[in-house]
Predict the 3D structure of the following.
Amino acid sequence: MKSKIALIFFLISVSFSSFSQSLSSSPYSIYGLGSLYDSDFGSLPAIGSSGVALPSNRFINNLNPASLGFTYQNHFLFDVGGTGIQTSYQDVSRKESRNNVQFSHIAFAFPLNTKSAFSVALKPYSSAGFKISDYKLPIQDSNEEYTLSATGTGGLNNFDISYGYRIGKKLSLGLSTSVLFGSTKDAREYVISNSVTTIDKESSYNGLRLDLGGQFKVDSTFTIGVNLKSPAKINATKVQSVMTYNSGLEATNTIETDAHSDVDDYFMPFEFAVGINKQFKNNLSVTMDYEKAFWESVNQADMYGNYLNQDKFKLGFTYRKEDKLRSYFDRIQFSTGLNYDTGFLEIDNKRIENKAISFGVSLPIENTFSMLNISYSYGQRARISNGLIKENYHKISLNLSLDGIWFVKRKFE
Amino acid sequence: MYRLFIVLFFGIILTSCNSDIDAGEFVVGSDNLSVNNKVILIDTATVEVSTINFDSLVTSGQSRILLGNYDDPIFGKVSSDSYFQLSSSSYNLQTTSSDTEGANYVFDSIRMVLLPDKYYYGDTTQVQSISIHRLLQKVKQNAENEENFYNNSSLSYDAVSLGSTSFRPKPLKQDSVFVKIDDVFGNALFQKLKKREITTQDEFLEYFKGLVIRSTSANTTSILGFRTTSLLQLYYSKSVTDSKTSILKEFTIDDISKQFNRISLDRTGTIVKDLPGTTGRLSSNLTENKSFIQSGTGLACRIDFPSIKELKYITEKGAIVDAQLIIRPVKDTYSKRYPLVDSLNIYVADQLNRIGSTLKSASGNSIYAILNKSNDEFDENIGYSIPLGTFIQNEMTKQSDSKSALILTIPTISKGVERLVLGNQKNSGNKVQLKIYYISY
């Protein structure tokens, strides 16, 4: 018993320590609040991140708080995960590969009674990691150029508190509150004529977003789910230092030091997701989701980029032999999925699309719902064209979903 | 057992750092990069260019005897005469064992030896004529506390020439120029020494106040520099018969503060004929969009930035990170004969042309206007560039209404006659350009 608690604590502490690490860097991270993460729990990464209609019975389903209404009583669920990503960046003339290992999430779910459950989760929301070296840009209204070097670090985190309540046997409703918080650092160096100007900026963000979900079991094999995310305002402030050095004049000029100021707030749009889950012959499960985010209706400030309405299509298949089988290998679950995301960023009049295919296995741990979910996905983001960079990525997600029945069982030893 | 394995597995994953180095070569959305921090080049700010006239440049103590005259096609007639006081280390003749021997000394000859210092300006192919006159006034200012002599100072001199010569200048390889001095003058001086009527410097200066060397012929075409080690040589010998044992007495410019050049410019009928006094200025708009600098005669270029304070209103928050003034010599005003100087001195001055100091960098070094010599086919790149970032930023943010201006001169201002013609903002092809680099933050 003690070793189990120690294990959980170990995972928690490791998770938190890795939280502060520098996150992945993508050239697209200069936009908005950085590149967004898909931190999906359990086996969701293997089924194209679909699952609005899946229950939180064997793992915590982060896509819909209503899923908590279907959590089994006496099952305490714990989910922790990490991803390793190898990305190759490619433009018209160059190609470069980078590896990144990243904490994905940590979450707990507690059933309160047979009808309701409660969960908390912590996960990264975005990464503002990017780097620009000696990039030449034109000086407005002239034929001269200046050189920009920049480094971005930091990102936002997401802390969710969710609650799900089942009404009767078929309908469950859920509510989730997401607290977004964090800060990004942006250090820029401008070489203009004979001068070097450094602008160091730390932006802090915080905001709250509500999430309403519903799931309806049409019959024992067919569930539909819906999830609505409220628009949200993420308050932004910055602390900035500006310094300039002029070599022709041998002059260093501190223009401002740690100056606090308000910046344009970041707005998140209304989003909805609908999905279905259908079981065939008690061993094949199909999930299908559609999501839409209305970015165009938010009045985003120019500094965050140009935004377009976003559509996401997700499809997943899961296969598992029937529960009764005792052989370990028969209990392994196999999954595959597709994910297509139109993206919401518009750069040089082009959308930054993302498409991915994924495969996964879920390895049961002991004779419980506990599983180690290993998934692999291959994806492409954006495309090679003038001003855009294509990212090809191989992503391995490891999610450990622990089932608290472990403890219950030990009590009877 | 495999629970331990899982723990290790996750532990490795979660604690491993990003090992790859992002070289930062991939950049998207260059438009977005400049949204927060705009870099702007402003080259439309008004620059007023004018010509001013310093009426008194200190020309004493400059270690150069400047002689000659030439008719400048643009500036008018330039001429330089040089005044100086001579002295000797001692005022007795060669000391001898007996007084009787001294009584036998006789005067031989006296001459002025001019040693070229390789400075020249103008066309040196024409014959130079100079004439030497005795000063009737000591090389000393009348006013108290005034020790300097200026380009417009003059002293009265005897109209009768003590000696003159004409020579063809070869400034770079020329030997000394010898001017034979009147024997009557020489002998008189010799007798004063021989009879020991002059034994001290005061007595000597009372008798022989100094010389002026004047440039005489009207068709001389160049101005030449000579060293202040140039000297007057008096030769004498033991007796009338023994002319072989010639003895030399030398008179030198011992104190260079007692040597100055009177450099004058006759602007009659030229484009700069209407130059106002020291505190005024002649707008380049009235002088064919040109401004004029001439060493020796005191012409200088003044640059004003009347609208600089308006730059404050470009953005709410912004800073001038660099500024450059590129001022261009007017094409066809320079040539091999009238070459461009490599750099210009820059002074910060007030509305009345009173100079505060040179334009300085933050660490206190003087800033110069440096000539960009990289030739292209149309000489478009030729110009003097001045880094002005701090000056412009200070002028922009200054609380008071007073505005500073820049004054450009040629470094040889006190000891040469180089000149330069610069274009203003309306001068097509040789336009002065103020480039201000600005970043918003």
Chain B has six helices and 25 strands. Residues 2-15 of chain B form the longest helix (14 residues).
